[in-house]
């Protein structure tokens, strides 16, 4: 059976329905009409300068977002979601753990990990503080085995509250960028931090298309980020505003660390990116990306000698001031 357009009705673990691949001339005409790179328009050759075009840009229009993170895309019920997140944590955990250690997290701290996912950061925090850590997620499938050292809260953070000043640390990694209510949520998250405590946020930012070097990979990346904005309401640029936002919220000693995982160099990262693209396949094909372009991009990601960027990870933090600091 064949569906037209992105099929958000598909069940988890679904292997995507493929649309017929249009002929080469039809693809070229359609791509030109959309201003997208093709093999023959110059953008595709790695030896020629890349010409930005209309479709190298993407915007967040939350009015058109049709689902929330985890509803269909990146649902825990997808066959490859655990593998995808395991790849992510392998790539990011060493830097996250070192950053939290450097920020002074230690014995006795009361910590909240929001959107805890598979719980690797929550578990590290629990070891660092020598006690239980509160891990909240709207889907706790992957936290189930870690309950002994975590206080697992099964809740949507948009509809949950904690006590004012309840935590020494409120942490979220790769969550805020996907939440349409991100701007309203930040002051609420800060209210849960005790005066003198820390708010630490990590999110990914997309790069300029010229920084994706393989032509098919570049086209697919551009389509993927546009899709994330339009389907989920993800903001692939939000984290670049953290230093200003945290300063404007009155935080002290605001800092930022940029970490740039490289496909093929950071263990797990290629796995994460390949599975992310595989889950996005239905949307990407419906948006006009050719099946062979997508296959080429995924093969590029999976090649051990590939060295490409995907998103840059920005970790921002700040201390909630004591009343006397104001
Ligand atoms: C990209 S994963 C990141 C997981 C983890 N923070 C990490 O970095 O390994 C995003 C997580 O946020 C959770 N999430 C998404 N929307 C949420 C919401 N509104 N409330 C609570 N958790 C949410 C998802 O279920 C998922 O586990």
UniProtKB/TrEMBL annotation:
Q: Which domain of life is it from?
A: Bacteria
The record, for Pfam families, names: Methyltransf_11
Q: Which GO terms describe its molecular function?
A: methyltransferase activity
Q: Which GO terms describe its biological process?
A: methylation
* SUPFAM superfamilies for the chain: S-adenosyl-L-methionine-dependent methyltransferases
Q: Where is the composition biased (Basic residues)?
A: 21-35
Annotated InterPro entries = Methyltransf_11, SAM-dependent_MTases_sf
Residues annotated as region Disordered? Answer: 1-51
Enumerate the spans annotated as Methyltransferase type domain.
Answer: 112-201
Q: What is this protein called?
A: Class I SAM-dependent methyltransferase
